Prior knowledge:
By secondary structure, the protein is α/β, with parallel strands linked by helices. The protein has 8 helices and 8 strands. The model has no long low-confidence stretch (mean pLDDT about 95).
Amino acid sequence: MQPRYSHVFLDLDGTLTDSAPGILNSCEYALTRLGLSVPRSALYAFIGPPLLDSFTKITGSSEKGQEALRLYREYFTEKGLYENSVYPGIEDLLAELAEAGCRNVLATAKPLVYARRILEHFNLARYFAHLGGADLNGPVRTKKGVIERDLAQTGAKAEEVLMVGDRSDDVNAALELGLACAAAGWGYAKPGEVDHATFVCAKPADVAALILS
Length: 213
């Protein structure tokens, strides 16, 4: 049977891996170094959207936001990157989709240089036909920008793609670009945040069933 979608675009943080420990630790390190104390629970908002935007908002200036991002990367590159784990069922999902002929495509707003290291660390890169992510210091840093570049580089048409992600950034970008979107219900979304997705999946196996059944 032909898969329902030939290309599956997948978010990373909160969709493939539970990256919260490393991201939150990196945020705390950066903000503490700048003399700011922010409740850990409030830092979950940093998972998903571009970090520079979040740091600029919380520090109150673009200069401090840039410095916070530099400090974040100082910790994340050495430690936070690996304070991370793959969600149960994700490797099975990726393997099943690849075996069925789907082209798995990474679409993360995390800089690609970090995303590639994470996928290789967990031996997941082998299931992907293409890896797409944000630029470390370049113009592409939003989820919409990443998806647009993935579409251009893979040659996929919007109607051939299912975007899988756990935050409103994923859903909104996909819908804006005419892509169907499956919300990853096991991720970091707040209640009701992704209810407007084309589909809502409670677990990775539901994504496989949606695409392959």
